[in-house]
Design goal:
alpha/beta, Uracil-DNA Glycosylase, subunit E
């Protein structure tokens, strides 16, 4: 509201250069400049000036804050389930002789296992007749991957599973080093040439990178029989000839003779599995007998 001032009070305010707002005046109130207003006016103005009615604050309409989604990650190129070995690398490995193949395995860095291994595990068998030639063998034993002891020594099947394998082979007249007179010679390899950390299962891309090495070993050794022990060895060797090999249990694949690059293949259990499942040793013995019969059939005219 406005103050009720008489003529004398208004005259005094005008002498003090204090302008009073009158509700009936349509004109806007002029604001005095700082230079024109004395100190007294600054003190008196709050007293004489009308107190404006409070202006109601505008109504605030509550709005739901939209959820801000996190930025979408940049699209990544699709990756195949199995990283195939480089075609040029595979072709180069396929043309290597035995010494070059050994050197290539020793210096391989095709997958991440090269960063955790202590030694590569090329394989073991009888002494070659010549330094630049592969040894002469009858049997090729293909396992899955090196374990802790194999990684330390750079040789496959050197632990308890290796002792069991040697005893099984010796029972059918086969020796890994050819030290037994009259015994057939065997060369022992793994699908992977490096140990997976913690003895975990081989990864598909690791198997793919090592397969050219295994394929070249088979081509150079020219064994008369391949004994595949363990699921990953069987899958690696039979993927091209048995369409559902990835889903079939190992037990269902036993008892038959397959082919890999023209070489007969017999499927059996891994010796490490036999150490945990003693009743399965009888089945493994049957597999060895099948392999032995297959070798005899190959020898027959």
């Amino acid at each position: 509201m406005a103050l009720e001032l008489d003529a004398r009070q208004r005259a005094m305010l005008e002498e003090m250069h204090v302008r009073v707002w009158w509700p009936q005046a349509p004109a806007a109130v002029e604001q005095p400049t700082p230079q024109a207003v004395p100190a007294a006016a600054a003190i008196s103005e709050p007293i004489s000036a009308p107190i404006p009615a409070p202006v109601p604050a505008p109504a605030v309409v509550a709005r739901a804050t939209p959820a801000v989604a996190p930025p979408a990650p940049a699209p990544q190129p699709a990756r195949p389930a199995v990283a195939p070995a480089d075609d040029g690398r595979a072709a180069a490995i396929a043309a290597m002789d035995w010494p070059a193949l050994q050197q290539s395995v020793a210096g391989c860095e095709a997958c991440k296992l090269c960063g955790t291994r202590k030694n590569t595990v090329f394989g073991v068998g009888p002494t070659a007749p010549q330094a630049d030639a592969p040894p002469r063998v009858d049997w090729l034993i293909v396992g899955e991957a090196p374990g802790e002891q194999e990684d330390l020594r750079g040789e496959p099947f050197v632990g308890q599973a290796g002792k069991l394998l040697d005893n099984m082979l010796r029972a059918v007249g086969v020796s890994r080093h050819g030290e037994v007179r009259g015994a057939q010679a065997a060369f022992i390899v793994n699908v992977l040439k490096c140990r997976p950390p913690g003895n975990r299962n081989p990864a598909l891309d690791e198997v793919a990178q090592c397969e050219p090495f295994l394929k070249r070993q088979i081509a150079l050794l020219q064994p008369r029989i391949i004994l595949a022990v363990g699921r990953f060895a069987v899958q690696s060797l039979l993927a091209g000839s048995v369409p559902d090999v990835q889903t079939q249990p190992l037990g269902r694949l036993r008892g038959k003779v397959y082919r890999y690059e023209g070489v007969p293949v017999v499927v059996s259990y891994h010796p490490a599995y036999l150490l945990r499942s003693l009743p399965e040793k009888a089945k493994a013995w049957a597999d060895l007998c099948l392999a032995m019969e297959t070798v005899k059939a190959v020898e027959s005219p």
